[in-house]
Amino acid sequence: MTPAENYAADGFYLHTAPILSADLVRRAAAGQEAICRGEYNTGSPPLQSPWNPGDSPDKLVKIEQPQFADNAVWEVVSNTGIGEAAAELTGAEMVQVWWVQMLVKPSTESSETRTNIGWHQDRQYWKAWEEGSELFTAWVALTDVEEDCGPMKFLRGSNHWGLLDSGDFYGQDLDDQAKQIQGTNREAAEDVQAILSAGAVSFHHCLTFHGSGPNLSGRSRRSLALHMRTEKSRPKNDKKEGLTRFIDDETKCPVIYRK
After folding, report:
1. Residue 33 clears pLDDT 90, i.e. is over it
2. Which positions ≥6 away from 165 have C-beta within 8 Å?
3. Residue 205 bridge partners (DSSP)
4. pTM here?
5. DSSP for 43-60?
């Protein structure tokens, strides 16, 4: 099958060949570290987030719209190579990054703090978009992601289940969650780990269930989640508010592919 056929069937695709250069990966990772210290080389902060400078480094770092704060992070977010790969998978004529989350999963090797990401569908949190909008995520690895890092996992084919609205990003018992999600009338789906080298990207559909276990590697797992849309999308009731409020500003939400 072609990459596009794999993406359509499975609900995700692992672009294991790095898209980003080693230099950009290095600078973006340094930018993440600066943001965590409250240092913003653009002169502007990210949005108020679930994790903010001064919070515990043993907790999952989840920062909203980090591209506002760091030039190297912006280079990743506006990378046209990622846009071309996304268009190849979706057949899109236009790809725009409409929201970004910076994620740093600390190692729990010597900490009791757990850093699981519960099984969830992104679409359950994206109520600002009209039903049927074509929405997906590019998850960009800024460190090598191996089995001991708590890699993202996908439930293969779960993009065909519809919106179940039963996951929880902050859930910690992944086994129990998976049982509840799949229920008794659905065959157990294979979970596939996203093993990636730094600079590589995984793509997943907004209905694909995904989550991850703890990072036991002894080093932080760094990534950026680029939430994207195609021309087949529209804010609900044409109101640009909440998660869609920046989409008319390409200095914040760049269009990274046009046919």
Report:
1. yes
2. 121, 124
3. 136
4. 0.94
5. S------SS-TTS-TTSP
* CB distance 113 to 56 below 8 Å: yes
Q: State the Cα–Cα distance between residues 38 and 96, nearest whole angstrom.
A: 27
Closest CA to 166 of 202, 110, 124: 124
Domains of the chain: 3-131+148-258 (2.60.120.620)
Spatial separation of the C-alpha atoms in residues 72 and 248, rounded to whole Å: 22
Question: pLDDT digits over 163-177, tens only?
Answer: 987 877 877 777 778
Q: Say if residues 238 and 247 touch (Cβ distance below 8 Å).
A: no
Distance CA 54, CA 209 (A): 32
Rounded CA-CA distance 96/228 in Å is: 5
Tokens of 185: 């009338």
Name the phi and psi angles at 152, rounded to 5.
Answer: -65, 145
At 145-194, the pLDDT tens digits run 999 999 999 999 999 999 987 877 877 777 778 777 776 445 667 889 99
The span from the first CA to the last CA of the chain, in angstroms, equals 23
Residue 119 CB neighbours (<10 A): 28
Tell me the per-residue pLDDT of 218-246, one tens digit each, with 9 for 90 and over: 999 999 999 999 999 999 988 899 999 99
- Distances 38 to 31, 41, 71, 246 between C-alpha atoms, Å: 10, 10, 14, 23
Which of 191, 217, 220 shows the shortest CA–CA distance to 204?
191
3-state DSSP assignment of residue 81: helix
Which pair of tokens denotes residue 169? 């990003």
